[in-house]
Design brief:
The protein has 317 residues and is an alpha+beta fold. Helices cover 30% and strands 27% of the residues. Strand 4 and strand 5 form a beta hairpin.
Length: 317
Amino acid sequence: MTRQPQVGWLRDGKRLHLQDGPIDLIVEAEGSAANRRTAYAAATSRFTGLLDELCDELSLLRMAADPLRCELQGTVARRMHAAVAPFAADHFITPMAAVAGSVAEEILESLVRAAPLTRAYVNNGGDIALHLTEGEAFTVGLIDRPDKCGLVRTTEVRADDPIRGIATSGWRGRSFSLGIADAVTVMARTATQADAAATIIANAVDLPGHPAIVRCPADELQPDSDLGSRLVTRDIGFLDESEIAAALDAGDARARQWLGRGLIEAVALHLKGEIRVVSLPSNVANVLHRSQLAAGESVIPPERYLSLVSVQQSAHP
């Protein structure tokens, strides 16, 4: 029997909260009252049983992805594989690297298929799928550490940008990382692509063998981890400026590799208070430079941010 997820509303009465096991979504749709009701009902319906679908193929989802072949059957599972496949030829990666973005994208699609909406988003713990119609925009708040609530930068994603997905990865997040980035936020054409790329780029921000970095096998922390016995970061001691720069340089190089292949649009890398923004020299990729925080805006109230990255609605003049 399919288990029933928890369904409720946040305090503002506008955002739908869907939770089932480890999946925790914030969903917001904008349109007429009737269209919102229809969209929210569709999202709830699609969310019911989605975790069971993933669990049915969990053993395959935890295996290293084959870049040329997919044996998965479920819609979300196949979406996850498609997102990691471009990276799998050169790096170890499993479809689980794109699970959060894939779930967000699936629920967003259920919203927009059900009813006409002007704007909508699904936030799955900071991995966010966006829907924008002409003239609309979202303001996105970026934080440099997932375990803190300091907002270091905001940026606007507009309808005429190709960006429809945002994801964050790093060793301080809710998943394990092979690298030492506090946070790597990626903007891409889909949330699934952003999720997979954020994992790969965060792994690349690293100083292999550095004595100040504490690592341990992933399966000692989580026996069923898809990373197996690979060493994941658990703590980082003192790093001098040159070491921080070297780690960011490694992540920068990996980000540029995927920018050049058109898999992502822009990246912000954070380590020990330092930020590196990587993008192509175009109006689209410079979205991360559109707005920054003014003095006195370094912290936002907890109700204004959603896990790793916050999304706030804004009108585009």
